[in-house]
From TrEMBL:
Name assigned to this protein: AMP-dependent synthetase/ligase domain-containing protein
GO molecular function, one term: long-chain fatty acid-CoA ligase activity
InterPro entries reported in the protein's UniProt record: AMP-binding_CS (IPR020845), AMP-dep_synth/lig_dom (IPR000873), ANL_N_sf (IPR042099)
Pfam entry (one): AMP-binding
Segments forming domain AMP-dependent synthetase/ligase: 127-327
Species whose genome carries this gene: Malus domestica (Apple)
A cellular-component GO term for this protein: membrane
């Protein structure tokens, strides 16, 4: 099946204009690109709307882990996450971090490009708190900068300085590995380490003592800056607007509508990809838009199938390498079981 369609014929060179080849689009966009509906300005509206529609629905879940055993998934509801995001956003603002709409971006022409922005922060959590912190930024129109925990201290230090990060959220067990970069960051910014509970407390006090009206948001504001791994040099920051994030989310909705079925509040998504991965961010934002549940894996590939079996999700997203490993594992196991098992498996698969 062809998945692209020609929408423009090639154009010869004429009147000083160079020639151009034919233009193609996905067959699912053959009639034109999607436009955002009026009134949709920020991904924050996905959460705020779903919290109103499905306040008691499970939103973010993780498995309870003790020294002796692993329990079932424990969930935060949409209302709980919404309330926590409002409190955390208030705490961030109380630390002097301002909305994006009040700031400017300045670039230099040097090879080491500099982003000047005081309203950025850096997130590094593979937990439900990550999405809560992300939504806290969305609520206050603050740009967030997610990082992979495999980047290493040098890349972390570079991105912190390059993006002029003012607040860092770091998972506790990641601190020792990145202590050198964080110590430099803390020394430069004269910041103190605070735990999540303290910021929640600070946010509650801020809401009591100040007007909790959220700042206005625009689809042209920068929602996030995604950094590459820097395989050809230092990491490069890609600025992604509110409009781009929302367009991707609504495109997922359209694609699922045409090829399978759209998600509902009854669906659940297994969060396996890194949260610093734009693919995973879009899928989780889509789930929030639809009121679906997001369950996180434990972060250990040895227990991946166990977590999947416990959650029983209706949606799983992976990259080609993940599916190739699953395929190879199945084929090898079936092939080693003899002719009868291989024949039965192929019959069942067909």
């Amino acid at each position: 099946m062809d998945f692209i369609v020609k929408v423009e014929e090639p154009r010869p060179a004429a009147n000083g204009r160079p020639s151009a080849g034919p233009a193609y689009r996905s067959i699912y966009a053959k009639d034109g690109l999607m436009e955002l509906p009026e009134g949709l300005e920020s991904p924050w509206q996905f959460l705020s709307d779903s919290a109103k529609k499905y306040p008691s629905n499970p939103m973010l879940g993780r498995r309870q882990v003790t020294d002796t055993k692993v329990g079932p998934y424990v969930w935060l509801t949409y209302q709980e996450v919404y309330d926590a995001a409002i409190r955390m956003g208030s705490a961030i603002r109380s630390r002097g971090v301002n909305p994006v709409s009040h700031m400017q971006i300045k670039y230099t022409c040097s090879s080491a490009q500099t982003l000047t922005r005081r309203s950025l922060r850096y997130i590094w959590i593979k937990l439900p708190q990550w999405l809560t912190a992300m939504e806290a930024c969305n609520s206050q129109a603050i740009t967030y900068v997610p990082l992979y925990d495999t980047l290493g201290a040098n890349a972390v230090e570079f991105i912190i300085n390059h993006a002029e990060v003012s607040i860092a959220f770091v998972q506790e067990n990641k601190l020792p590995a990145q202590l050198s970069a964080l110590q430099m960051f803390l020394a430069l910014k004269r910041r103190k380490l605070k735990d999540w509970g303290y910021l929640v407390f600070l946010g509650r006090n801020s809401l009591r003592n100040a007007d909790c009206e959220l700042p206005p948001k625009r689809r042209t504001d920068i929602c996030t800056i995604m950094y590459t791994s820097g395989t050809t040099g230092e990491p490069k920051g890609v600025r992604i607007s509110n409009g781009a994030i929302m367009s991707e989310v609504l495109s997922v909705e359209q694609l699922l509508f045409l090829t399978d079925r759209v998600c509902t509040e009854e669906d659940s998504y297994f969060s396996f990809l890194p949260l610093a991965h734009i693919y995973d961010q879009i899928m989780e934002s889509y789930c929030i838009y639809k009121g679906s549940s997001v369950g996180f894996w434990r972060g250990d590939v040895r227990f991946l199938l166990e977590d999947l079996q416990e959650l029983m999700p209706t949606m799983f997203c992976g990259v080609p390498r993940v599916y190739d490993r699953i395929y190879s594992g199945i084929v090898n196991k079936v092939s080693s079981g003899g002719v009868l098992k291989k024949t039965l498996f192929q019959y069942a698969y067909n």
